[in-house]
Design goal:
Rossmann fold, 39% helix, 247 residues, seven-stranded parallel sheet, NAD(P)-bd_dom_sf, 7 helices, alpha/beta, Sc_DH/Rdtase_CS, SDR family oxidoreductase, oxidoreductase, SDR_fam
């Protein structure tokens, strides 16, 4: 598989975790990568390590996104940015948390599409990769509003395939189960207790696993669009409701 057809990529939420892992793999693949996060300081080490182009940008602001990304002629857009997950039940989710999740997970993704997709469609070449979650397709307690936004990403990815029919632009949703990024720690007030509950003794996915999946779908022949890929740990049952603890 080859990425020779692509030259430039944009990765949001690139400062750490899955986003940083994707940036590393894309740079190894020879792409010019714009690594997007809210703070340029968070991207400094990654830029020094990989040679990516750090870009401080709040993707919830439409005009700023159009100005920063609209002229890049990006061949690849990875919508990875996601707001922090906080635990609780739906009716107790604070208005601030609702706004943040909606702004980043939904409005941010739509803003990036508005900046990048017209150019892709005009050139007849491009690939959009949306990072979803198994929580968006299978109900799990503890993260209702986050799961709602990921369900919307699932629907958006399918709708994009219809909207872009005949343009040659490919769309992929990658839907991971539990990945050891630290995001789960926000589900509990005690972060160390969260680490024990969600990571210790579990053979979870790693950010590099998701980055390798991104490279696979990008490198597939142009005639092949991996429209939906669900990736879960071997020990996590379908939908994520059960997870075997090995130790």
């Amino acid at each position: 598989m080859s990425l020779d057809r692509y030259r430039t990529a944009i990765v949001t939420g690139a400062s750490r975790g899955i986003g940083a892992a994707i940036v590393r793999e894309l740079r190894v693949g020879g792409l010019d990568v714009y690594a997007v996060a809210r703070s340029a300081d968070d991207l400094t080490d990654l830029a020094q390590e990989t040679g990516c182009r750090p870009m401080a940008l709040d993707i919830s602001h439409r005009d700023a996104v159009l100005h920063a990304l609209g002229s890049l002629d990006a061949d690849v857009l990875v919508n990875n940015a996601s707001a922090p997950v906080r635990g609780g039940v739906s009716w107790e989710t604070s208005p601030d948390d609702i706004d943040l999740l909606m702004d980043v997970n939904l409005r941010g993704a739509l803003n990036c599409l508005a900046a990048v997709v017209p150019g892709m469609a005009a050139r007849g070449l491009g690939h959009i990769v949306n990072l979803g979650s198994t929580s968006g397709t299978s109900p799990l307690p503890g993260m209702p509003v986050y799961a709602m936004t990921k369900a919307a990403i699932h629907n958006l990815s399918q709708t994009l395939r219809l909207d872009l029919h005949g343009t040659g632009v490919r769309v992929t949703e990658i839907s991971p189960g539990r990945v050891e990024t630290g995001a789960h720690l926000g589900l509990m007030e005690d972060r160390e207790e969260g680490r024990r509950r969600f990571y210790e003794g579990f053979e979870t996915l790693q950010p590099a696993d998701i980055a390798e999946a991104v490279m696979f779908v990008l490198g597939a022949p142009q005639r092949m669009d991996v429209s939906f890929m669900e990736i879960v740990p071997t020990d996590q049952s379908y939908g994520g409701s059960q997870f075997h603890r090995r130790r």
